[in-house]
Amino acid sequence: xxxxxxxxxxxxxxxxxxxxxxxxxxxxxxxxxxxxxxxxxxxxxxxxxxxxxxxxxxxxxxxxxxxxxxxxxxxxxxxxxxxxxxxxxxxxxxxxxxxxxxxxxxxxxxxxxxxxxxxxxxxxxxxxxxxxxxxxxx
Length: 138
Fold this sequence. Notes:
Elements: H1 37-45, E1 55-61, H2 65-68, E2 76-79, E3 85-91, H3 94-100, E4 108-112, H4 114-136
Antiparallel strand pairs: 1-3, 1-4, 2-3
Helix pairs in contact: 3-4
């Protein structure tokens, strides 16, 4: 017994494919708020009506700016000498923002705001608890 109809693959020549236009009602086109589709989608992704993250924080990273810049995303990076830089970025929550800095795997210092520092402390406690659980075994 061969493969079921559902499992078989078929190839079709493009000349044999006919597009089907839906016969139902059409939508009414509306203008995008603000006029820029990219800005509108970016703002919605960030959870706001304006194109700004609800949580923004700044950290000094003990890494050269050239190593941080490729990962700065929509953040603002600034060199502070040869081996340090600051990075201001945003996220939808303080915890997510703090967690995002783990990708740098370097020492860092929170510049502002205090909620950002508290998020790092909470995350550190959670990670330490996870490490202790793993060391204890099953």
